[in-house]
Amino acid sequence: MRPEGIDEMVIGTLSSGQGHETSFAQRSTNGSACGPTACDSSPATPDRVAIGAGSHSGRSLRLASLTAHQASDEIIEKGRRIASHLLEAAEAGIDFADGYFTVAGTDRSLDLFAVAVAARDDASLPAELRGPLAGIGEVTSQVASFPHGFHVSEVEIDPDTGAVEIVRYTAVDDVGRTVNPMVLHGQTHGGQTHGGQTHGGIAQGAGQALLEQCVYDAGSGQLLSGSFMDYAMPRAADLPFFATAISEVPSTTHPLGLRGGGEGGITPALGAIVNAIVDALADLGVTHLEMHVTPERVWRAIRTKPGE
Predict the structure, then answer these.
(1) Do strands 109-111 and 100-103 pair parallel, antiparallel, or not at all (unpaired)?
(2) Among candidates 240, 234, 256, 258, which has minimal Cα distance to 248?
(3) Which of 39, 55, 122, 147 could covalently link to 25 via disulfide, CB atoms 3.0 to 4.6 Å apart?
């Protein structure tokens, strides 16, 4: 807790567009110390944090929330001891809520940053309470907390060209308690039915199912699809508006009830889209198609007799 009024969090994971700066701030100091404008999520560098493994596998907020919770508990405990000296009250009689230490049953209080200033400047405090008002959390968890989801895709196929169009997509995802619904929708779904269409995980899954492929030269191993001139990426015109919803059933294996949400869009989208295509071609004897399902691959499947 920096005396100038900034709650700084340094954590061993990096954001590549998942909105960590917003969500981590909401978890800071158990969500009760400061408003979002006073929180700063700083990049993790080896000189500041030695432990961390990047952002992957839907783990960042799930583990970061526990780490922040531990560090926040340390800050609050130390702050309570400092406040008891400054307010001349028993430590057991100091409550903490909404960023304030208050003497129970009175209107006497100090805000968190005033306590941080005292920790730095007040020479009357015991030596063990002086210095930065800070806490450290370290979590190593092998206990899983898997998200759940239900995705349905409807496709239409042009039998003359094999072109596939996703005409409807519906998704319900359960990531336990949701820290920030807007961030989650943008990352997993890409916007609600009548919201902005910043297609996220579902669009990534659709791209992998229908468009994207790394192509290499057989003789040299040279990548032939090394730019977006050669590598097909999903665009807004390739996708419909999504009908999405979030279900919140707290995880029983996570102390704060959170589940990972970063892979909730892409993982089910692959199966939902490809299975919809196979279902559309079932009357022709098609039972399986490999990704990526290009128009040519669909066209050949339509014209190939079962068993050939």
Answers:
(1) antiparallel
(2) 258
(3) 39
Measured CA to CA, the distance from residue 211 to residue 207 in angstroms comes to: 5
Spatial contact of 60 and 19, defined as CB atoms under 8 Å apart: no
Q: How many residues are there in the chain?
A: 308
Exposure string over 72-95, b if 16+ CB within 10 A, otherwise e: beebbebbbbbbbbbbebeeeebe
Band (pLDDT 50/70/90 cuts) for residue 42 is low
Over the stretch 56-115, which tens digit does the pLDDT of each residue have? 666 777 777 788 888 888 999 999 999 999 999 999 999 998 889 999 989 999 988 899
Residue 96 — φ and ψ, nearest 5°?
-125, 125
Question: Could you tell me the residue ranges of all domains in the chain?
Answer: 7-129, 148-303
Query: Residue 28 — pLDDT band, cuts 50, 70, 90?
Result: low
Domain 148-303 has CATH 3.10.129.10: no
| Weakest mean pLDDT among 35-44, 116-125, 149-158, 159-168 | 35-44
* Cross-strand pairs, 186: none
